[in-house]
Amino acid sequence: MSNEDISTDQSQTMTQMSTNLSNLSKYMKFVGLLMMIGGVIYCITIIGAIIGVPYYLMGKRLRESADAFTDYNSSSSVSDLQTAIGQQTKAFFIMYILAIIGLVLIAIYIVVLLAMLASGAF
Predict the structure, then answer these.
(1) Total domain count for the chain?
(2) Cα separation of 46 and 53, whole Å?
(3) Structural domain that includes position 80
(4) Is the pTM here over 0.85, yes or no?
(5) CA torsion sign, 18 to 83 to 74 to 33?
(6) pLDDT band for position 2 (50/70/90)?
(7) What average pLDDT does range 67-71 have in this prediction?
(8) Burial 24-63 (b: 16+ CB within 10 A, else e)
(9) Among 34, 83, 78, 79, residue whose Cα is nearest residue 59
(10) CA 75, CA 84: separation in Å to the nearest integer?
(11) The Cα angle at residue 28 between residues 47 and 84, in degrees rounded to 5
């Protein structure tokens, strides 16, 4: 491959990446806003706040990540990229913890339900 071919390939890749980052940040802002709104709605009740606060924080981290991706797209600053990935990692970590908690609660529910069925409670 000649240097011109490599340069053309890199240019096409950067153009595609720029478009993808723009779309990614747009989608992340929307999803983050929905999560924040959902978190606030969950927080109306005290019990709901247990789920609402993490949802709100997830949405906030996604929106911060989207802003950093937008900044990176325009400046190509490594610190913007690090911030974007860091905030996105925090959002997905919260989602990971909530998913594990949800699976554990479902497993407990199934065990209790099966125990009740076995004992003739129904």
Answers:
(1) 1
(2) 11
(3) 3-119
(4) no
(5) positive
(6) low
(7) 93
(8) bbeebbebbeebbebbeebbeeeeeeebbebbbbbbbbbb
(9) 34
(10) 13
(11) 100
pLDDT in tens, 9-66: 667 766 777 788 888 899 999 999 999 999 999 999 999 899 999 999 999 999 999 9
Instruction: Extract the tokens encoding 115.
Output: 């125990």
Decide: 32 and 62 in contact? Cβ < 8 Å.
yes
Q: What is the pLDDT of residue 7?
A: 65
CB atoms near residue 67 (< 10 Å): 18
Q: Which amino acid is at 58?
A: M
Structure tokens given for 107: 């497993």
Sign of CA dihedral 15, 19, 24, 25: positive
Question: What is 31-96 written as a DSSP string?
Answer: HHHHHHHHHHHHTTSHHHHHHHHHHHHHHHHHHHHHHHHHHHHHH--HHHHHHHHHHHHHHHHHHH
In terms of Cα–Cα distance, which of 57, 50, 52 is closest to 92?
Answer: 57
